[in-house]
Design a protein that fits this description.
It is a single chain. By secondary structure, the chain is an alpha/beta fold. The protein folds into four domains: 266 residues, Rossmann fold, CATH 3.40.50; 98 residues, no CATH class; 88 residues, Luciferase, Domain 3 (Luciferase, domain 3); 172 residues, GMP Synthetase, Chain A, domain 3, CATH 3.30.300. It contains 21 helices and 29 strands. Strands 4-3-5-6-7 form a five-stranded parallel beta sheet, with helices on both faces. Strands 12-13-14-15-16 form a five-stranded mixed beta sheet. The protein has a four-stranded mixed beta sheet with strand order 2-1-11-10, with helices on both faces. Strand 27 and strand 28 form a beta hairpin. The chain is globular, with a radius of gyration of 27 Å. The two termini are 37 Å apart.
């Protein structure tokens, strides 16, 4: 049953007072805080904040890394009926001004000197920011600013108040209602000012409970809290579900020690974006290259076996007696030590989200016995919308709607969500709220996708990027450029893709090969080449890329809605797309429109039926000089497939 965060804290402190609630690593040693000690700390902070003048309904920002005392501060704020607003600790001072002024913030709890300096810097633009509390006093001995108080002083004052008013804290905490605002999270503000996403105790706890029930989480879990607390994903995993389940949240000593701390803790429940899983795997592969020849051969033999049978084994399918015995041997010699080296020897459930993860990377972790799954959600939905059930995990879907969630697809392909975890609204922004929330409770995600025949959600693109095929056999079919591009980029030989097809009769793509992957392949084939441009136009390379394109086409043919997005023609570009040449953003996202204009002769050749096209392109070098690259590019045709209807 949904309740409030302070009541969940008091419940754990009453029922299991000595059980560990959080651990923090300080000077290389893990320090444990019990539930009883956490409840007492929260009481003292709450009493201290009350004495300082924090009142019900006010906002207070919390800025810092994952630390028990900062989590306790959030609970203390909620216990007084006020609203915590976690901000990103790596945000520059100027980025803090809008949230502080928008939410009329008078109080801040920050971690250390760096964050104090930011708050002091913004005071000129945020004159109402009168009270700044800090946890770590290092480097601040000579600070003498009005309203600047250490956490130790705040706790000491609160402890004295609590002794004088022993019932105050529990009486205040009991006033909280499930529908009260529990927290506010600011969006990134990429298209304007950030928006404050308002969530209640009910919305956050309900989603925490739904996720916990889905994966059968208990108080025995260990979680490593290393992502920013201002991100709602970290907040759900290490705050909402922490209080729902009563498991242990472990705070690493610093960002630099996360990998070491991961191995020491051995979490049972783990979350990371794809880039973290990529980094972990890369570090392992680099070390493996330095191993002896016998170890390398053994590693590659058993990894091939794992790639072949591991995912089926993880999904509960039979793999045969011989493969089962070989996998057991591989587990003893390779997979077990590898999981231990990654810090995942105890992981029962691991999630990734935020961006597409390559099937090879996804299947690697599953093949060695790590239950890696995907989820779908957002700040506005309190994260949990879709989750992948055990034994129903696929790299190209984000799972099934979890408890309480309804999903429907609008006529334009947009995914609409109805859930108990939806935001209450955007703070002081009724216009933006009305744009995303319908009168009957549906939330517009701005993502395009569909539910497949098995009830799994597939995300194909942002709605604004989805187009339609015009003319030909696929007239009116949906075209999702980013979905097509990502499926092709899952092949290691392909680095970048630009897809066109909106308002055209077929889909054509321009491709960048991955120089390292294709270069290594060429060497193994004894195929000589003189640089990128030469390699890119080799007939053998075109056949290699054609095979990738046709595999994607065969896969697309099985998607009724996306069968029309199959690639008919392709070419391999003579140069790598580059942000310095305006072809990519600084975050390496394709500027599809700009590229279409810059390479208009190539687009015309693709759609004009030509088999080759000369192109000369101006390029900018790192030292600022400009030059040109020219080549006659081959244009290849790819086999397309009849749509395959899923079995009933």
């Amino acid at each position: 049953m949904t309740t409030t965060f302070p009541s969940l804290l008091l419940q754990h402190a009453s029922q299991r007072p000595k059980a560990p609630a959080m651990r923090e690593k300080e000077y290389g040693i893990w320090q444990t805080t019990s539930w009883a000690a956490m409840a007492q700390l929260v009481e003292h902070i709450a009493c201290g904040l009350h004495q300082s003048g924090l009142r019900r309904g006010e906002h207070m920002i919390v800025v810092g890394a994952n630390r028990p005392r900062l989590y306790a501060t959030m609970l203390a704020i909620q216990s007084l009926g006020a609203v915590p607003i976690p901000l990103y600790q790596d945000a520059v001072a100027a980025e803090c001004v809008f949230p502080i002024n928008n939410a009329d913030v008078r109080y801040a709890m920050v971690e250390d000197q760096e964050q104090v300096d930011k708050m002091l810097e913004v005071r000129e633009k945020c004159p109402q920011l009168a009270h700044i509390f800090f946890d770590d006093p290092r480097g601040m001995r000579n600070y003498d600013e009005e309203g600047l108080v250490s956490m130790d002083e705040l706790v000491a004052a609160g402890a004295q108040f609590a002794r004088q008013h022993p019932d105050f804290f529990r009486e205040e905490a009991a006033k909280a209602q499930t529908g009260d605002v529990a927290a506010m999270f600011f969006t990134s503000g990429t298209t304007g000012n950030p928006k404050g996403v308002v969530h209640t105790h009910d919305s956050l706890i309900n989603r925490g409970q739904a996720g916990a029930e889905f994966d059968r989480l208990t108080s025995n879990e260990d979680v490593l809290a290393y992502l920013p607390p201002a991100w709602i994903g970290q907040n759900i995993f290490s705050y909402a579900q922490w209080l729902v389940c009563g498991y242990v949240v472990n705070c690493p000593e610093s960002a630099a020690t996360v990998t070491i701390d991961l191995k020491e803790i051995g979490p049972t429940y783990y979350f990371a974006p794809p880039r973290v899983f990529e980094g972990l795997l890369t570090s392992v592969m680099i070390r493996m290259e330095d191993a002896g020849a016998i170890k390398r051969r053994m590693f590659h033999y058993f990894m091939e076996l794992a790639k072949r049978v591991g995912p089926d084994r993880m999904d509960g399918k039979s793999i045969g007696l011989v493969d089962n015995l070989l996998y057991g041997l591989g587990n003893a010699l390779v997979y077990g030590p590898l999981r231990n080296n990654l810090g995942m020897s105890r992981v029962r459930v691991a999630y990734t989200a935020g961006e597409a993860i390559g099937p090879d990377l996804f299947n690697f972790y599953r093949s060695i016995g790590i239950n890696l799954k995907q989820l779908y959600g957002s700040t506005e939905t309190a994260v949990f919308v879709c989750l992948q059930p055990d034994h129903e995990v696929r790299a190209d879907t984000v799972g099934v709607p979890c408890k309480g969630v309804e999903i429907k697809v609008a006529d334009n392909g947009e995914i609409l969500v109805k859930s108990p975890g939806l935001l209450k609204g955007y703070y002081k922004n009724p216009e933006a709220t009305a744009e995303v929330l319908t009168a009957d409770g549906w939330y517009h995600t701005s993502d395009a996708g569909f539910l497949d025949a098995h009830g799994h959600l597939k995300i194909i693109d942002r709605v604004k990027d989805v187009g339609r095929i015009k003319g030909g056999a696929n007239d009116g079919a949906m075209f999702a450029p980013k979905y097509v591009e990502n499926k092709l980029k899952f092949f290691p030989q392909i680095k970048e893709v630009v897809a066109y097809g909106d308002q055209r009769e077929k889909v054509c793509v321009m491709i960048n090969i991955d120089m390292d992957a294709v270069g290594n392949w060429a060497e193994r084939q004894n195929l000589p080449y003189a640089g990128y441009t030469d390699l890119a136009q080799k007939p053998e390379v075109y056949e290699l890329i054609r095979d990738c394109v046709e595999k994607v086409n065969a896969d697309l043919a099985a998607d009724e809605l996306l069968a029309g997005s199959q690639v008919s023609r392709f070419l391999v570009l003579h140069k790598e797309l580059d942000a310095d040449d305006g072809e990519l953003t600084r975050t390496n996202k394709v500027r599809r429109g700009f590229i279409g204009e810059k390479y208009q002769p190539l687009v015309d050749a693709l759609y004009g039926g030509k088999t080759e096209q000369f192109i000369e392109t101006t390029v900018k070098f790192e030292d600022g000089r400009t030059g040109s690259v020219s080549a006659t590019l081959r244009i290849g045709d790819a086999k397309t497939f009849e749509p395959v209807k899923a079995a009933a």
